[in-house]
Description:
Blueprint: E1 3-7, H1 11-23, E2 27-32, H2 35-45, E3 49-53, H3 61-71, E4 77-81, H4 86-95, E5 99-102, H5 107-118, H6 123-129, H7 139-145, E6 156-161, E7 164-169, H8 178-186, E8 195-199, H9 208-223, E9 227-231, H10 235-244
Parallel strand pairs: 1-2, 1-3, 3-4, 4-5, 7-8, 8-9
Antiparallel strand pairs: 6-7
Helix pairs in contact: 2-3, 3-4, 5-8, 8-9
Amino acid sequence: MARILVVDDSAVMRRNIIHTLTHAGHEIVAQASDGGQAYNLYKTNSPDLVTMDINMPEVNGLEAVKRIIADFPKAKIIMVSALDQKHMVLDALKCGAKHYIIKPINPENLVAVVNKILGIVPQPAVKAELPKKPESTTAAPETRTSPVEEEPQSPFIVKNVDATFHIRLTKLLSMDNIGSLVQAIQGLLYVQPLSVAVNFGRVETFPEELLNKIAEINNLIIGANGKLTVTSQNKEFINWVREKHISGLSELFIG
């Protein structure tokens, strides 16, 4: 699909990124271990996108972004960083980088971010699931009798209300589309102070694999010193999740 330049001083990290992106159908045109090489390889190969590590010897990722953007203003660069590199990431974004990914890299999230920047986010796949998800026999009557509380036709909705990010999850959330939620959450991790309210709404059940993934997301928020609350309008769902004893989720429910 796209021609990509991978930049990282770790051969292991480059190999992991290359494996993930080639498996997703992209072509790796070159790889570099420092920012100076990245700049030269960009000039030679004109890639569609660059994944750029921040901490590298000789020329770091921030300086490489400045050099590439100066000569190629339309370059699409995604920064790859650790949580303790917030300021450098923000500087890179100000200099023209398009997005960032937090280490350790989740393959699903990496592909989702790359596709988003390239303009090929698989949104239609989410919509295509709608007719296939009649999971609850009670959902339809609730929609008819309470149109004001109609279930959103998307896996999740994020709204910023009074400096708190309210994330409403729906029964359409699945392992196929949770990468988009991970991507959205990573976009919030640099906000300080960070306050997030996760609401499961009237969801009746989720696969345990999906609950574990949501718990990982919650732990990302907590790890970024964020204030987090978790609620649901379904008491039976709350009790069911608590019985699962999923660290990062079960103990966070209010009510």
